[in-house]
Design goal:
39% of the residues lie in helices and 16% in strands. The protein is globular, with a radius of gyration of 18 Å. The protein contains 11 helices and 10 strands. It has a single domain, classed as Aldolase class I (TIM Barrel), CATH 3.20.20. The strands form 2 sheets. The chain has an 8-stranded parallel beta barrel, surrounded by 4 helices. The chain has a two-stranded antiparallel sheet with strand order 1-2. By secondary structure, the chain is of the alpha/beta class. Strand 6, helix 5 and strand 7 form a beta-alpha-beta unit.
Length: 298
């Protein structure tokens, strides 16, 4: 258990500290090649990723780290969760040459106190708002507000929502001359079965599934340490493998939750994930965690 982990009893303070540390590290000592072979480009959701490691939504919600994520070894940064108004207002500025390979995702959530009757208009507005800056968009169905949509009685309602989003995406693509891949994010406990919607994603035209394992209360040092239990890692891999088999390679799979080491990342990739995302590892291990993972993954 690192010193930072012992000193960060609350996730909020840990995230703020880690973000400041990340920025300071990049400004003082930009990442340099150490002569090791770089990972091959990963193709997922119709995009090319410099490597399979990404930063999960919630860590850099407002894009303050932004383009500097590539200097820390990441191939992808997912911002949010963002309401339509927040997505429209968020600007990362011009893409600098040193971040030419960084993929940016916008994680789209529901506004506060938005009832399910207003979910479709909110997500549609969020998708349109993300178009100006995102490389891909995520419909976040993992929030407490949206969780009810993933339950069996609402399967038809959820299918209609996703079909409307795909239709809007295709219409915007025709107008803008570029496509914005569309993913869905689901949160599951390790003993939960896959929601029925997973089997329908390819037919609906969804490009990616972000599978967040072990939904629960806000993370703590104790919960982070618990993820080092090999049994918990095996359960997460089993869940990834089940989703991979269900998707049959037609939808790109992203695994997030409890990934703290290169071995954890490699196991999720071997189970069928195309990409992995980290969050708490940045909080508790510090800004060099991706560079360390890449050295082992190479």
């Amino acid at each position: 258990m690192t010193a930072l982990m012992r000193q960060a009893p609350r996730l909020g303070r840990g995230v703020a500290y880690a973000r400041a540390q990340l920025a300071a590290h990049w400004l003082a000592s930009p990442a340099r090649s150490d002569g090791r072979r770089a990972p091959a480009t990963v193709h997922a959701m119709g995009l090319g990723f410099a490597n399979p490691l990404g930063i999960a939504a919630g860590f850099d919600r407002w894009g303050r780290l932004g383009w500097r994520a590539q200097a820390l070894g990441f191939g992808c940064l997912e911002l949010g969760s963002l309401t339509p108004r927040q997505a429209s207002a968020l600007s990362l500025g011009p893409r600098p040459p040193q971040a030419s390979r960084l993929v940016i995702g916008f994680n789209l959530g529901l506004p506060p106190r938005c009832d399910l009757a207003q979910a479709a208009p909110a997500y549609l507005a969020g998708l349109a708002a993300a178009w100006h800056a995102a490389d891909y968009a995520v419909i976040n169905l993992g929030s407490p507000q949206a969780h009810a949509l993933t339950q069996p009685p609402r399967l038809g309602e959820l299918e209609s929502l996703l079909a409307a989003l795909v239709e809007r995406r295709d219409r915007l693509a025709a107008q803008a001359g570029r496509c914005l891949p569309l993913a869905v994010k689901l949160r599951l406990t390790l003993d939960s079965p896959l929601p029925a919607i997973v089997a329908h994603l390819a037919v609906l035209g969804i490009d990616g599934l972000i599978l967040a394992s072990d939904a629960g209360p806000p993370a703590t040092p104790q919960r982070y340490a618990a993820w080092h239990d090999p049994l918990r890692q095996r359960l997460a891999c089993r869940q990834v493998a089940q989703a991979h088999a269900c998707l049959a390679g037609r939808v790109s799979l992203v695994s997030v939750g409890g990934i703290a080491t290169a071995a954890h990342a490699e196991a999720r990739l071997q189970a069928g994930a195309a990409l992995v995302q980290v969050h708490d590892a940045l909080v508790y291990e510090g800004p060099r965690v991706a560079l360390g993972m890449l050295r082992e993954l190479c």
